[in-house]
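Z., the sequence and structure:
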Amino acid sequence: MDFNTPLSANRELTTTTALNFFPHAASPLDTSVQNTIRLDGHSSLNSLDQAIQEAAAYLQSFATSANFSNVLDIAFGGIFDVRRAIDFAQSWTDQDFSQLPQIEIISGTDIAGANGAFAVETNRIYLSADFLIQNASNLDAITGTVLEEVGHFVDSRLNKIDSSGDEGDIFSRLVRGQDISAGELVPLKAEVDHGFITLNGQLTAVELASPSDFGINFNSASYSRDSNKFVAANDTGGTYLWCTDFAFGRALEKGLIQQYSGIGGKISGNAGVWDDQAGSWSIQARENSFVVWDANQGGAGSVGHVAFVERVNSDGSFVVSEANWGSAQMSFNSRTISSGTSAFNTAKFIYLGSAPNDNEALIRQLYQDIHNREPDAEGLQYWVGQMASGITLSQVRTAFANSPEARNNINTAYRNILLRDAEPDGLQYHTNLLSSGATLRGLYEGISLSQEARSQFWVTQYFNNTDRTGSPVFAQSFGRTNTGFDRNWGTGSPSSWVDTDNFSARIFGQVSFGAGLQEIGVQADDGVRVRVGGQTVIDRLVDQPFVLNTGTFNAGNGGTFNVEIEYYERGGAAALNFSSIPLTPPDYSGNTLADARVINVATNTNTYQDWVGSLDTNDYYRFNLSSTSNFNLNLNGLSADADIHLLDANGNTLQGSANSATNDENIVRQLNAGTYYVQVFQFNGNTNYNLSLSATPVDLDGTVNTAQNIGALYGSRTFTDQVGTSDTNDYYRFDLSHISNLRLNLTGLSADADLEVLNNAGAVIGSSRSGGTTTEFINLNNLGSGTYYARVYRYSGETAYTLNLGGGIPDWYQTSIGTTNGGEQRHVTVERVNSPGFIENKPTWLVIHGWDGQANDFRELAGAIEEYDGHSGGGDYQVLTVDWDAARTGKAALNAAATWIDTVAEVAVNTIRSWGISASNINLVGHSLGAYVSYEISERLGGINNLVALNPATTTFGGYDHSQVSFSRYSNWSWAFWNNNATDSGNASLTADESFVLDLPFANANEGHGGAKILWTNMLKDKNGSVSQYFGLEDMKASAYKPWGNKSSGWEARIRAEDNRAGWGDPNWVATGWSEPGWINIG
């Protein structure tokens, strides 16, 4: 059994057992056998360990055997991924089993009574705990099951589609050196066990048998209230059945019982009493019998369970069809009951009438198996008589298989699929298969899977359903693959074996394509899907009339590719054809700048069509503009992703458009007179396209609508032009991406011209109208983001001019963060120290005060940082103070202040991001609660440069948990300066890369809590002091020289200081020395 969707058991993991299953520690099985029910100490775990060791030995021996390829061919079909198969062989030869899945032990009821299962999506093998316990002394049974699930795993890696039949069982037997007779192989290949079970509340697809594989028809009267007394009594029917409803109906369907006579009249009620009611039963499994389990036996519940025996295998196991078993509640299920299991040992069989000895029924079945028809009266009478005279069924089967009709049937199968008669050896081989238990339909399927069929012909398998499930009912060839095919069945079907409506087909061929792009075309009525080389080219599995569906496939350098076609017919007419042609894409445009296609770009839009893809990755166009123009380009009509570049005369990119998928590409901008190129290029896939271009000459003396677009304004831009009697106005359009200060000046005048600034609505928001040739100025502060216009216009005379526009972030920025319950406004203010008038995108220090403070209290520290490099207002760093004094409800409310820590940090981060300053340019210094604001900023930015924590507060209250703070977590380097008293948090300080205890003689609590700010300020001002020299901005890195040793825990050094204040006032702490730490109690 193998699973196709994730499997998760509805139970708690109680133990994980580590077993060294395979020699290489890389194997997932080494440490991941998960025991989800308690088997601790049970001998079955030792047996599983031994079984997996034995499975490993089998796989290693198999990988080096000459039979390797033949076994894979038999188990997984003639077409599989050879490269991956070779990889498996090499790994197993080297005893490397690391690619094999993990094993999980679960309850047998969770996998519908199976011994084991494999789930593709979880990539895990599941083994039944019941099976392991019952077979603790049967090593071969456990080894066989492990190898069976390994086989399912290997199939999932070698084939895109699950191989037909029970490929895992076939693989396990052959790897262990067991022979599989032709009679056994055919039913194993015919097994299809897809179904669903419910685990952990989720419906999970599994491999179970489907009703059609047993010829079950739930639409027949046998499962209706009128004809089935159990269905009538239980008010069920169709596919909604109790186990008794189904088993009784199955026997009715096969004509083995009557409703109210014989065994059919005796049995009633719950399944567990059927054996007693029948009057006799056996422990020997027999085809076409009821199998009964008493209450609480073999996995049955309190009322017992009954199923129908469909087949008895040569190893003694038997296959049942049933309903309402395990998770298949009130629905169909099938399973194989293996020897040695609880279900096998407690089964009771009720033989139905004379079915086992009903010679007429047996002969009728032989006619169906070997001739695929009903018997003629004379033949039926003859063979029934022969069996009555003592000839065995096996002898009759051999006679049927060797009959001229059977041999003609084999030749007909060859002609249908291989377009030739069978050679003598092939004829005898398939005759022997029929004699050994194979069916004619099974022969058709087997021949269609042969290497000869699949390498030369369009091989087609048909199914009497629309979803291509179960075993095929017929197979044929559509001819050799060196041509396409065309089939029109009208309102009929491909064969008398195939229904006229609601049938489907799977067509396979190995097709040779030339190099390059190929167009694939199919006409289908109804649905069709085409894959070439594993790539879906056409996907139209929908009801549709006979229409043409096309797709393209890139064959690269050419070669042979697998072509798989899935088709279904819903009703009415049925037809299907296939064709392919090399596709030579159009190429009207040059592929380099040198041979670019010359086009005309004018006021009216011109459109050009072409193609880009794997064979033609670039198209180039060249055009000229005679004057400044508003240029517009649109690329549309895409079926794959293509992008565009606008290039100047030298091939340099001016602008590009790279939208995703098939979205249009656009470029809109103003271009000066000159030569330009357009490059259209493939991003992925192949696509036709439409390239539309226009260019409208610009009247720069015109209106807002024809303004020269200079784009985003940041920093300073300068333009020169002139105004006069024939050119009275010049407009310039620009964009501000954030709140900015705007500076404009108009110089170089020889006559009177004036200056205005307009908003996007055309309203004048600033003007300068000085007389004569005086310079015109406009300064506008805190303009919001958006589009604006500058207007230069003539007042009198003719004059040239120079217009300078400058935009920048204002050096004072305030953000409202709400109001208190009393209606008082709260806000955060950011201001640049020693400002040149604006905030820049450069290395930045943010200085953040604590609870009982404000930005002005930190001006001296901010200035010391800003002037550290000796360049006030324009050096390496810009310094901003963050004032959140108004974000709290009073200086006496520490609780209230702490509640604003996260909000203030969020505002600061949003502000930094809106200005475009990168996180790597950010440095933070925070005092008291401000230290925690600094930490929150560093976390939200995902990492910063440096962080300095000054006297981080020991108590925050207000809901802020500072125990989660780590100053070093989101910074390249961090320092913490703290006083060992009740106001400072030593625990928080120790999370910095380096932390320093302050020795401040005679300082009270308040003086000590502010000491770090004063001390570090003085050290920055005295860069060459004996202590200060180690605490400059450049020392904030691991590689800087430190006279103290780095401590993995605790603080790095104690800094001694003295108070240099003159007279009364605040202390003025100056560093006088330092010492290595001993251990102190930091509280």
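The chain has a mean pLDDT of 84. The longest strand covers residues 799-810.

Let me know what you think.
H.
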